[in-house]
Design goal:
With about 220 residues, the chain is mainly α. The chain is built from 9 helices and 2 strands, in the order H-H-H-H-H-H-E-E-H-H-H. Strand 1 (about 130-135) and strand 2 form a beta hairpin.
Length: about 220
């Protein structure tokens, strides 16, 4: 596998599938999650959707020449859900998509996500990280590494959400994946709050802001 980000995605998605298959998830399936307005099943579906969506992108057709290209942080600058109220159409749609993904139950969700991951593993093998892939739901294009980095962020954050929701330990991710995720979160936080605010949060407890949440 040529791209280390691709390798990281496969490793992280494998950890996420194992989390979905934890008996604690099935036991809490119909309960509210740690995220407001999200059930455990819907959150599990949203976590799994990061893998099934990746399958659609990496096995899809190459982007058309006239489709706009976006860098990683610019991709988030266009996100309608980022910083929006929970009842915003985009956020409501995300919850609905998660529930739909999980509608068949936990066993079906694990099986479907495992199959999708197997397809991703095959599709990205030996593909360069700088190749362009199409994001048809936007529509736009970005590099394979940048797209998979967006999925790494989702998998990392929502694995923690799901683990907290069902009362188990948050899965440990490979250190280099954590580095990628934290770097992206730092970039997004700086873009949202400014350099000085983020710097103070990391270095000066007496002047630290109440939050530097990136997303």
């Amino acid at each position: 596998m040529e791209s280390r980000i691709g390798q990281g995605f496969v490793e992280t998605a494998t950890i996420s599938v194992a989390l979905l298959n934890d008996p604690a998830v099935a036991d809490a399936w119909d309960r509210p999650s740690a995220l407001e307005k999200f059930s455990v099943s819907g959150l599990a579906g949203h976590l799994a959707r990061q893998v099934t969506r990746a399958k659609g992108v990496v096995t899809g057709e190459a982007p058309d020449n006239d489709v706009p290209r976006f860098a990683l942080t610019d991709h988030y600058a266009r996100a309608k859900w980022l910083g929006a109220p929970l009842d915003n159409d985009s956020n409501a749609g995300i919850r609905e998509d998660g529930e739909a993904e999980a509608a068949g139950g936990v066993a079906a969700l694990v099986a479907d996500t495992t199959r999708a991951l197997d397809e991703v593993r095959i599709a990205i093998d030996d593909k360069p990280g700088d190749m362009l892939v199409a994001l048809p739901w936007v529509p736009s294009a970005m590099t394979l590494d940048d797209f998979l980095t967006t999925r790494l962020l989702e998998l990392a954050v929502h694995s923690d959400d799901l683990a907290v929701s069902v009362g188990i330990e948050t899965p440990e991710l490979p250190p280099y994946v954590t580095d990628v995720v934290l770097d992206l979160l730092c970039q997004l936080s700086t873009r949202r709050h400014g350099v000085v605010t983020v710097m103070r949060a990391f270095s000066r407890a007496e002047r630290a802001p109440s939050s530097i949440a990136a997303i």
